[in-house]
Amino acid sequence: MDTPELLASLADWVGTGGLRPLDLAFTQFIHQRTPEQDPLVLLAIALTCERSGRGHVCLDLWGVVRAFAAEDQAAAPDSDWIPAPPALRALMVRFSPQEWAERLAASAAVEDLRQHRPSPSCLLEPQAEGEARPLVLGGIPERPLLYLRRYWLYEQQVLRGIQARLEQPADTLLDAELLRDWLAQLFADDPPDAPPWQRIACALAARAHFAVITGGPGTGKTTTVARLLALLQGLALGCGCLPLSIRLAAPTGKAAARLNEALATSVSRLPYDRLPLGEALRAAIPIEAQTLHRLLGARPDSGRLRYDRRRPLPADVVVVDEASMIDVERMAALLEALRPQARLFLIGDKDQLASVEAGAVLGGLCQRAQAGHYTPQTAAWIERVTGARLPGHLIDPQGRPLDQAIAVLRSSFRFSAQGGIGALARLVKLGESQGETPERSSAGAKDRASDPLPALEHLFQAAQTAPQDSGSIRRILLRNERDPQLDALLRAGYWQGLGPDPSAGTPSGYLAVLQGLRPADNAEPAAFDHWARAVLKAHSAFQLLTPVRQGPWGVEGLNRRIQRLLGQGPDAPLAGAGERLWFEGRPVMVTRNDYALGLMNGDIGIALRAPAGPSSASTASRMGLRVAFLSPQGTSIRWIPATRLQAVETVFAMTVHKSQGSEFTHVALVLPDADTPVLTCELLYTGITRARSSLTLIYCDEAVLRAALHRQIERFSGLALALHRGEQGMPCAPYRL
After folding, report:
1. What are the DSSP calls for 356-414, one per residue?
2. Does residue 333 fall inside a structural domain?
3. What's the whole-number mean pLDDT along residues 284-302?
4. Residue 575 gets which letter from DSSP?
5. pLDDT in the model for residue 11
6. In angstroms, what is the C-alpha Rg of the chain?
7. Is residue 292's pLDDT more than 60?
């Protein structure tokens, strides 16, 4: 195949959806700007660009050959490649990954940096004469990876920042006996048989400059953070030092608000009467989080950040929640902005969906986390300061430095393990319906060879008699998109609010609160604030989630359906909802940071009829549609005129991706009627675990659900390859979420 034939085949692949027009245009641009004529190199460039659009930091050459060598590529459930034209497929499998790498290394468009090792002194600026080459061949000789240069630079910045902190020795000034006493006081109120994982997480983080605390819903991540902050400040104040400068952040405004609320509650419950320093300690513990954009000082006029390597963030400790949502570019910016001695703690659920943008940083870091890999020295230290003896299957004499900095919270306090939401999440995550052995659970094994639907059927049957603390689960199998069962659920959710049973209790849905608690037009502003706060709280009691945006089962189609459902008829609770863009009761999500209004991407508000303007004006002239948002601290209401909001979308239904960082009392997760590559077990897990108390799973076709349970997200990067490299230099697989 010559170059013109290759470009023609790539154009054909664009026509079938395998490549984006951008991927072809980028390949043509490289071909025109460099003397590159090798069809294999141009093909690799197109594939690398395509992978970045699907969230991969790089192209794994070994993975490409494996994926396209399969006899029936389209039937591979874990592949997100669209079948390629036969000529392209033949070219892909003709060469080994090592042969691909050698051809790439000889290209004028590619810089071979497979032997590069990041170091704290390396500034990662292009050193070659003239213009830097647009692609980088990285990884190691046994596992070559091809990057767009910008993503290679981001990954190197992340590696440099993490490795520099891992290489700093564990705090030798940390008195083990003093730490043991502090932990004993902080955890004194826990039952004697309480799992030790939170104590272990605090102990590991207390001695580290970089640590990860990961766990599923209800495992106590925020409680652990509160105790960790108390521990760090207590140790600092106890030795006569000034309080540590601690900054808290989350990727979105919604996640930051949730962290504010949850952390304030957890911090208020600490046993200050028993702890040294008492009220002085309470005053030193921060409880206000902000978005990463605000933390780094994003400037809306230029897109640049106030804080970077030359102007570091004035903080001793930075804690970032919902870290699974952070892509490699934002993680690189964060690490570049930290002082060399600043400590970074990442908190999140490693099994959730990764960021929409390229890079699954938390997942890559936690690739080996479930299996522990703690060295005997770490295990002995944990036992000394916490009294907890690690099980043998978590101990590994060959454990890597990163392994010693990761703590997994392995026990859920929200859901029973015997059924309901907790068991459903475990089934989706591990492919198992029954309790697994410790060794299997620790390895994170996923058995997807058998049909998971019988186990799912058993779970839903058992849910009818499951304990109340397990979280109720229900499923609805629809006949078609006009099936009235969905409309009945929606009416119940928005009016009844709590639980899938519309006959239970007093209506508490957001529509009932909107209508039932509405103040008189001439009421005081505080009454409208109280009403708005109640409506926003009630709105979080029920949320419809979907994996897709378009079609009758996507966000756009479902939002139109709900607006018609609630806006038609003489007794419609949202009159005019199906006819006008803005109407009272419209829930909206901010889709782009608006610094002028102080709104962040992910913030949710509800349009309400409320007074505006001076109180001396007539009531009629003062009333208008204004959108109520909770303040970042969650303590007050901010009213924004609807006409000033540009980048917002209706969120009766929202995508599972957009729901990350949020929790709802009752979640209804609806799947499309046809399979799509975005349907994965990670997406199902994320949607399921947004529910605090009740989950309703809705689908039309069991084959679609089966395909989703079999499909896993693959996110390739060199993070795991570099940080988990074995003692003998043997490669491990790049990260597969």
Report:
1. SSS--HHHHHTTTGGG--B-HHHHHHHHHHH-PPPPGGGB-TT--TGGGGEEEE---SS
2. yes
3. 85
4. T
5. 92
6. 27
7. yes
Residues 505 and 576: beta-carbon distance below 8 Å: no
Q: State residue 438's pLDDT score.
A: 44
CA 286 – CA 318 distance, rounded (Å): 11
- What single string gives the DSSP state of each residue in 222-234? HHHHHHHHHHHHH
Same domain, 518 and 495: yes
- 147 lies in the same domain as 205: no
Query: Which tens digits make up the pLDDT trace of 399-442?
Result: 999 999 999 998 877 776 666 888 888 888 875 444 444 444 44
Evaluate if residue 676 carries a pLDDT over 50.
yes
Rounded average pLDDT over 128-149: 82
* Both structure tokens of 711: 């499909």
Q: Is there a contact between 625 and 607 (Cβ–Cβ < 8 Å)? A: yes
Residue 64 confidence (pLDDT) above 60? yes
Does position 211 have pLDDT exceeding 50, yes or no? yes
Three-state SS at 317 = strand
In b/e form, how buried is each residue of 100-119, taking b as 16+ CB within 10 angstroms?
bbebbeebebbbbbbeeebe
- Residue 537, burial from CB neighbour count under 10 angstroms (0-12, 13-18, 19+): middle
Q: What span, in angstroms and rounded, lies between the C-alpha atoms of 432 and 427? A: 5
> Which residues does the annotation place in the binding site?
215-222
Total number of domains constituting the chain: 3
Instruction: Using alpha carbons, select from 218, 237, 231 the residue that is nearest to residue 385.
Output: 231
- My answer on whether 280 and 330 are in the same domain is yes
CA–CA separation, 64 and 73 (whole Å)? 11
Percent of the chain with pLDDT over 90: 36
Measured from the Cβ of residue 173, the count of other Cβ atoms closer than 10 Å reads 7
Tell me which H or E stretch contains 100.
helix 97-105
Return the amino acid letter for 298: A
- Asked if 161 contacts 155 with a C-beta cutoff of 8 angstroms, the reply is no
Annotated binding site for ATP: 215-222
Higher pLDDT residue, 456 or 169?
456
Instruction: Give pLDDT tens digits for 31-40.
Output: 988 876 789 9
Task: Compute the distance between CA of residue 717 and CA of residue 710 in angstroms, rounded to an integer.
Answer: 22
- The residues near 639 (Cβ < 8 Å, ≥ 6 apart) are 532, 610, 612, 626, 627, 628
Kind and range of the H or E run holding 611: strand 604-611
The dihedral of CA 432, 438, 443, 444: what is its sign?
positive
Phi then psi for residue 131, to 5 deg, are -75, 135
Residues 235, 238: Cα–Cα separation, whole Å? 5
Q: pTM of the full predicted structure?
A: 0.85
Query: Residue 723 falls within a domain, yes or no?
Result: no
Instruction: Print the domain residue range for 238.
Output: 171-184+200-367
